[in-house]
Amino acid sequence: MKQKEFLEVIKQAGKLKTTPRHCFTEGDRYESVAEHSWRISLMAMLLSHEEEFRDVDFNKVIRMCLIHDLGESFTGDIPTFLKSSDNEQSEEQIFRNWINTFDEKNREEWFSLLDEMSALETREARVYKCMDKLEALISHNESDLKTWLPLEYDLQYTYGQDNVRFSEYLTELRREIDDWTTEKIAKEKE
Q1: What is residue 161's predicted lDDT score, i.e. its pLDDT?
Q2: How many Å is the Cα radius of gyration of the chain?
Q3: pLDDT tens column, 6-40
């Protein structure tokens, strides 16, 4: 990749630093897509030391985490409960068109990762998807309940539930997040 092309990719990715997500941070500001992507990458790094995942290629998982929302640098973030299949297709097409401008090695790697992520057939893809879902739940638990929409009280317990079932460790992590959610809601009611 030529240096000018390298910079163009980094500049486009940099837009995620100011692309807000639906969730608020502890400081009552919108979380950025970049913050979400960074944290799921960190989560994957921490998970890489767990015995259950010794056969998982975490280099690949972290790469998936880093690129998974780059399409939102073009379209913005649409919360999962508002995102239609048309929105998903449009974002994917714009993202893939952009990747088509990359040099051959990067283009092949990124398309391969996207295809694997989409199929969700490998342990790497399933781990990445769990990190994506669980980080959203963690972020919501960190935000003030006054920022939650009524539908999010149920969504907090159901979102990503199916994604963790393949893993004992991630199922237990999900239980911990659910317990945190229950405590958070109970404290607010006091």
Answers
A1: 94
A2: 17
A3: 999 999 999 999 998 988 887 788 899 999 999 99
**If you search the block for the tokens 């004992």, which residue do you land on?**
168
- Supply the CATH number for residue 140's domain: 1.10.3210.10
Q: Are 181 and 137 in contact (CB under 8 A)?
A: yes
Give CA–CA dist 165/160, Å, rounded: 9
Q: Which residues of the chain carry a pLDDT beneath 70?
A: none
HSE-CB at 96 with a 13 A cutoff on CA atoms is 12
**Which residues make beta-bridge pairs with 20?**
32
What are the tokens at 32? 């950025």
Nearest to 138 by CA among 62, 29, 36: 36
**Tokens linked to 69:** 């929302």
Q: Is 175 exposed, middle or buried (0-12, 13-18, 19+ CB in 10 A)?
A: exposed
What is the domain extent for residue 172?
A: 3-189
